[in-house]
Automatic annotation (TrEMBL):
Superkingdom as given in the UniProt entry: Bacteria
TM spans (from-to): 16-36, 56-74, 94-117, 129-155, 162-180, 200-221
The keyword Nucleotide-binding belongs to this UniProt entry's keyword annotation: no
Source species: Lacticaseibacillus paracasei (Lactobacillus paracasei)
The name this protein goes by in its record: ABC-2 family transporter protein
Length: 226
């Protein structure tokens, strides 16, 4: 079934090419936005991390772009359920879209940041800072993945993509407000100066929540009229 889902969704991806193109370009601009910041700031580990993880742009640009790119691609088709005689196909399709929308954005974002660092001559500093940057990068995309799962779960539960977007963006906004006011936010803690150990612990919690969301989403799919 998994192979069939991948083949089917790959064919449908062509229908959303423009959506993914916009997501990719927006991610590229956000990644390159650090170019001016890193030129104007004196080098320090704190400035480097804030340049790679610009929380204002992630809050107002990266995450909304991901959600808006994900929701149009979530299309539940009753004929697929009839064909496979199982609603599991819906959960697999949704998981595929959550991951497929996120993966190209993560790759583009990563290469854009490497380009900015290399042009400004800071690439050699990654030898000392690669671990905290890697931990924060993984944390960021776990956050995106979790918000994606929350969004599609809400879209299925409420049968309204608009409601799902606004609730998810509300969670995003609340977490951003917390981190700006220097309170624990969980979702945006990748942009703080917490220790590697603290971020790994929080990242494990985030990943655990994401993994719990999958059976919850499957439960909702099985209960809802489609």
């Amino acid at each position: 079934m998994s192979h069939s889902v991948i083949s089917q969704q790959n064919l449908l991806t062509k229908s959303f090419f423009k959506v993914y193109l916009i997501c990719g370009l927006t991610t590229l601009f956000i990644g390159l936005a650090g170019f001016n910041t890193i030129c104007q700031a004196d080098f320090s580990p704190e400035n480097l991390i804030s340049t790679i993880f610009p929380r204002h742009l992630i809050f107002s640009g990266l995450i909304p772009t991901y959600l808006l790119g994900l929701l149009p691609a979530i299309q539940i088709r009753p004929q697929d359920i009839l064909l496979y005689q199982s609603r599991k196909i819906v959960s697999l399709q949704v998981l595929y879209r959550v991951c497929f929308t996120m993966l190209p954005m993560a790759i583009i974002w990563g290469f854009a940041n490497i380009f900015v660092l290399s042009v400004n001559g800071y690439l050699n500093f990654l030898g000392d800072l690669w671990l905290p940057i890697l931990i924060r990068a993984v944390y960021l995309w776990i956050t995106v993945f979790l918000l994606g799962l929350i969004t599609v779960m809400l879209a299925i539960a409420t049968k309204s993509k608009l409601i799902a977007f606004f609730i998810s963006f509300g969670i995003n906004s609340l977490s951003f407000t917390f981190v700006i006011s220097k309170r624990p936010s969980l979702f945006f803690d990748f942009s703080t100066l917490d220790s590697n150990g603290a971020l790994i612990s929080k990242g494990i919690i985030m990943l655990g929540i994401a993994l719990l969301m999958i059976p919850l989403m499957t439960f909702i799919v099985n209960r809802r009229d489609i």
